[in-house]
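Translate structure to sequence.
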């Protein structure tokens, strides 16, 4: 079970039917947003109870654990929409993962792929950091990211990796046909075998003397630039391999 106190995250969990029960504290009497959340819960048939003495805020939701999508369902969604998928190569910090998922959802990406080992799961911290954005994405956990990328390429995806040493800058490269954007983990970035699976590499244009960016910040720049180019192209079906 997940326990959530972020109000945006609770609203998204309610919409997804994930909330099992809602606890409301005395502070909710003067908190209009918390009162609206309680009303939404009642309308959805979710039990609303008094907050335990040691509650963390005016409202707290007890939710079922996050449910991951399958890679097959993600591929079907991509083929239907031509949308963007973000693949994460061992991102381990829950705050970074949550921030990336929030950005991906806000930009209009359709999903994310993470590896089972040496990667952060969608925990309550991740879910709340994403402000419930995780609920708006198809998130897949795979045993082997390189194999997953290979399969996605077989299904027509073009894969762009991100590397601060890459020759091409994202704003100058043609990102409109990118189906999968791969971000490396904290510290070492993308692994060699993941890099080899990418069709090409791009970077964020930083100053030469200080090229390093937090992975969630770099993801924000690259995701929005990719989506900007896709929208400018005005063809949602673009993105398949020739």
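Result:
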């Amino acid at each position: 079970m997940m326990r959530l106190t972020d109000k945006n995250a609770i609203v998204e969990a309610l919409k997804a039917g994930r909330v099992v029960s809602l606890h409301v504290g005395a502070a909710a009497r003067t908190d209009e947003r918390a009162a609206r959340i309680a009303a939404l819960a009642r309308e959805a048939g979710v039990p609303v109870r008094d907050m335990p003495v040691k509650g963390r805020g005016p409202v707290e939701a007890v939710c079922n654990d996050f449910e991951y999508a399958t890679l097959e369902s993600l591929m079907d969604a991509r083929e239907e929409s031509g949308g963007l998928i973000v693949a994460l190569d061992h991102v381990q910090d829950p705050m970074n993962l949550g921030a990336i998922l929030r950005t991906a959802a806000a930009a209009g990406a359709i999903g994310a792929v993470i590896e089972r080992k040496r990667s952060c799961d969608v925990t309550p911290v991740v879910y709340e950091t994403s402000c419930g954005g995780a609920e708006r994405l198809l998130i897949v956990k795979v045993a082997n990211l390189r194999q997953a990328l290979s399969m996605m390429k077989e299904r027509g995806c073009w894969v762009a990796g991100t590397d601060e040493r890459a020759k091409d800058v994202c704003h100058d490269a043609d990102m409109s046909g990118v189906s999968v954007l791969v971000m490396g983990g904290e510290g070492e970035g993308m692994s060699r075998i993941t890099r080899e699976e990418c069709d090409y590499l791009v970077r964020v244009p930083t100053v030469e003397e200080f090229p390093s960016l937090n992975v969630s910040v770099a993801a924000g720049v690259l995701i929005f630039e990719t989506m900007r180019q896709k929208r400018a192209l005005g063809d949602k079906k673009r993105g398949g391999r020739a």
